[in-house]
Amino acid sequence: MITLFGKPEETVLERLKNSVAKTRTELSARVEQLLTGDRPVDPALLAQLEAALLSADIGVGTTKEVLASLRRQVTEQKLVGSAALKLELKNQLVAILAAAPVPRNGDSPAAVAAAPRVIFVVGVNGTGKTTTIGKLANRLRAEGRSVMLCAADTFRAAAIEQLEVWAKRSGVELIKQKAGSDPAAVVFDGLTAARAKNVDAVIVDTAGRLHTKSNLMAELEKMKRTAAKLVPGAPHDVLLVMDATTGQNGLAQAREFTGHVGVTGIVLTKLDGTAKGGIVIAISRELGLPIRFVGTGEQMDDLVPFDAKTYVNSLFD
Amino acid sequence: MFENLTDKLQRAFKNLRGQGKLTEEHLDAGLAQIREALLDADVNLGVVDEIIAHIREKALGSEVLLQLSPDQQVVKIVRDELTELLGKEVRMQFASRPPSVWLIVGLQGSGKTTTTGKLGKWLGHNGHRPIVVSTDVYRPAAREQLAQVAKATHTPVWPGAGTDKPLEIVRGAMREAKLSAYDVVLVDTAGRLHIDDELMNELSTLKRELAPSEILFVADAMIGQDAVRSAGEFHKRLGVTGVILTKLDGDARGGAALSIRKVTGAPVKFAGIGEKYDAIEQFHPDRIISRILGMGDVLTLIEKAEKTIDEKQARELQRKLEHNEFSLEDFRDQLKQIRKMGSLEQLMGMLPKIGPFAKLPKDTAIDESRLKVAEAIINSMTSAERDDYNLIDGKRRKRIARGSGTTVQEVNEVLKQYNEMRRMMKMYGNTMKGKMRGLGKLRGGLSN
Ligand SMILES: Nc1nc2c(ncn2[C@@H]2O[C@H](COP(=O)(O)OP(=O)(O)OP(=O)(O)O)[C@@H](O)[C@H]2O)c(=O)[nH]1
Ligand SMILES: [Mg+2]
User: Fold this and answer.
1) pLDDT surpasses 80 at A251
2) What domain range is B379 assigned to?
3) How far apart are CA B324 and CA A75, in angstroms?
């Protein structure tokens, strides 16, 4: 069984906390300043909280909803004082993120037992798919798993070469074809080889594509069908890689990729910058998609499992 | 997904008709909608609030223009404000003595390498001899990527083999440019975080060495609130001279264009609109504004209406409507004006495919010749008939049909449409509104 998708260990939580705290944002500073001292809740405080949430890209819809509920509780005197408000705000955000995810293919016992476990990595251009694959491969290797990479981005210049470097770094095998060949054919090759060699997991790199391009989404669907023909239930994971700087368009991305290829989880990259990636909260709320991992840099071990409490705390503490 | 801003404003302003001025109360209701629309489009919160304050000031007490409904008028003020903020289209800058250097900078994954390839191609097409060079010695296969892009675009590339020091690489490229008379050196750089002090310093060093004519900040159109921070920091360190907005072929609203412009003061110079190397175009501020406001080209429509309908005519029409004097003659003028505003096809195309227009059948062909037929029919009437349509009995209808080479049925249809339009225009009182609705009706009536 692959523990990669299990619960995060303490040390990892600490790491996430540290890496995010390092680049503590205006947001958390502001909220902290607002919320230190147990002053009574006034409209100005709520307005400032609204600004803080909006600045984290959480979006108008979700922000309005969360604040309306806070306001209601203040009016009903269920919430008294800024400390209680702070706690409640955090709890609400955590609740959205941790809301029981729709049962996913990848969590079923069959998928967990499947060999090889097939992981598709998808997303719009430049979000960090290939880098994330390098990091994932490394992580799986460290957990004692045998891994194979599949270079199915045959479109972007030097995409294959890029993945090759990552394969070398993490010491795993790479299946590839010539640039420009049919990505579904590469998937076919990759899964065939993976089955023959009995590897535990195959990670498929896909070309970045805008979710609005129906021909490219159809291409992805075809790759998925090919995978399913070779390995029962494949792909067991479809990870949507999202850049933390993404604004409200992230929602459309998640919606479309989920609609076309059934996203099973999100990887939020570039959290080592100053962007907070709050759109994942809106995505969680609408689509119930779990956030699996967080990217915190360009090095091989800059990938940590996502934990809702840690993430929300890092926004406010 | 999102409700069209026009719809929202129409709702906010529905009690406003008939009043001469925008009241504060109505205005604030409308501005709240605009604020949300801008936030939905990823314009930075601070920038949004500044814009809103400014628009409020401008809009308060401004005369309600006769030819625009209040919602359209506020949209016009918003548009004018955003247009002013984004500025005009600008030309690229070159050194007085070649080679010119354009330094391409930005966050990871924003699209710098692809854009470098596109610019190389664009320069080649515009009579330049560019050479490209990558200083990304960090990301796996980054230099290989630019080499392949250069090959695909038939642009010379300086490989910088034998060194992995950006400064040495660009020095080599500059020597090569001078030797082989390349007139623009496009320097692709590694993506980096604005808070990465070491790598930001590297860019400052490159800038000192190269004295670039352009420092182009490449930004992903999908970027959210953080755009002001990253762009602001790049600008503080380097003095950005221009912005290139990429991935505009998707459905991101691109509000970051406003945020970035606000913090850097640098104009957006190019828009990336696809993965092919010719998918780049000079940036049109007016288009991104429509996009940010999520209203198709409704703004262009307003503009056209403003130009086409002159104030006096509109006032006269208003008077006639008030006195129920809207004649067939006026109807004919209306048809003419519609034709003047552009082909119907084009006009319908400008309407956003959302809100009230979502329901319009997409592919119904609009038979523009029917407009001309209607005009011909009215031309065949006597002036007495045009003044009072009640005169037109069966016999006269036959005569008119013969005179205009049409059928009685067609004459009946035109009269029916005239009556409908008259009724509607009376109902809405407001000229522009009446025209718009009339237009929708006409389309329904005239298309087959
Ligand atoms: N700072 C930071 N940079 C990252 C992270 N993840 C990826 N990157 C960088 O983002 C850039 C794009 O990453 P890629 O892995 O090439 O992205 P991709 O999604 O595969 O790109 P395409 O295949 O071109 O669509 C590279 O410069 C990466 O080094 C992260 O967590 N933090
Ligand atoms: Mg990639």
Assistant:
1) yes
2) 309-446
3) 54
Cis peptide upstream of residue A290 (ω within 30 degrees of 0): no
Alpha-carbon distance values, A21 to A17, A25, B9, B225 (Å): 6, 8, 42, 19
Interface test with B, best of A57, A125, A130, A163 (most B CBs within 10 A): A125
CATH number, domain A10-98, options 1.20.120.140, 3.90.226.10, 1.10.3260.10, 1.10.730.10: 1.20.120.140
Q: Chain A, 139-158: which have a CB under 8 Å from a chain B CB?
A: 155-158
Instruction: Answer with the one of B58, B87, B116 that is the final residue of a domain.
Output: B87
- Return the residue matching tokens 């021909």: A215
Residue A22 pLDDT exceeds 50 = no
Could you give the CA distance from residue B184 to residue B129 in angstroms, rounded to a whole number? 6
Q: How confident is the model at residue A112 (pLDDT cuts 50, 70, 90)?
A: low
Cβ(A136) – ligand 1 distance below 6 Å = no
Q: Mean of the per-residue pLDDT values for chain B? A: 82
Choose one of B87, B108, B135: the last residue of a domain: B87
Whichever domain contains B145, its CATH number is: 3.40.50.300
Three-point CA angle A40, A82, A309, nearest 5°: 170
Q: Do residue B141 and residue A164 have CB atoms under 8 angstroms apart?
A: yes
Interchain CB distance below 8 Å, A126 and B255? no
Is residue B207 over pLDDT 80?
yes
Paired tokens of A183: 């990505």
Assess whether B113 and B251 both reside in one domain.
yes
Helix, strand, or coil (residue A241): strand
Nearest-by-Cβ selection for B111 from A57, A125, A162:
A125
pTM for this entry: 0.78
Q: Which atom of ligand 1 is nearest to the CA of A207?
A: 23
Q: Which residues pair with A243 in a beta bridge?
A: A269
For residue B438, what pLDDT is reported? 37
Same domain, B271 and B191: yes
Q: Chain A partners of B222 at a C-beta cutoff of 8 Å?
A: 124, 243, 246-247, 249-250, 253
In the structure, what pLDDT confidence band is assigned to residue B424 with cuts at 50, 70 and 90? low
pLDDT at B276 over 60: yes
CB contact under 8 A, A211 and B250: yes
What is the nearest CA distance from A217 to chain B, expressed in angstroms?
Answer: 13
Residue type, B360: L
The pLDDT tens digits of the residues spanning B124-154 come to 999 999 999 999 999 999 999 999 999 999 9
- Among 3.50.50.60, 3.90.320.10, 3.40.50.300, 3.30.70.3400, what is the CATH number of A103-307? 3.40.50.300
- Has residue B395 got a pLDDT over 70? yes
For residue A97, the CA-to-ligand 1 centroid distance in Å is 24
- Domain-located, residue B55: yes
Q: Are residues B164 and B219 in the same domain?
A: yes
Is the shortest distance between the CB of A153 and ligand 1 below 6 Å? yes
Test mutation, B121, B225, B245, chain A, max A CBs within 10 A: B225
ipTM of the complex: 0.88
Asked whether the beta carbons of A239 and A120 are under 8 A apart, the reply is: yes
Q: Does A174 touch chain B (CB under 8 A)?
A: no
Which ligand 1 atom minimizes the distance to the CA of B192?
1
Six-digit token string for A97? 């993120």
CB of A159 shorter than 6 A to ligand 1: yes
Establish if B298 belongs to a structural domain.
Answer: no
Q: How far is CA B163 from CA B55, B134, B166, B171, B198, in A?
A: 54, 12, 8, 11, 19
Check whether residue B158 and residue B183 sit in a common domain: yes
Q: To the nearest whole angstrom, how far is the Cα of B350 from the nearest Cα of chain A?
A: 21
Pairs of CB atoms within 8 A across A/B: 140
Same domain, B255 and B107: yes
Domain count, chain B: 3
Cβ neighbours for B295, distance < 8 A, ≥ 6 positions apart: B4, B5, B6, B75, B352
Q: Does ligand 1 come within 6 angstroms of the Cβ of A130?
A: yes
Residue A241: is its pLDDT beyond 90? yes
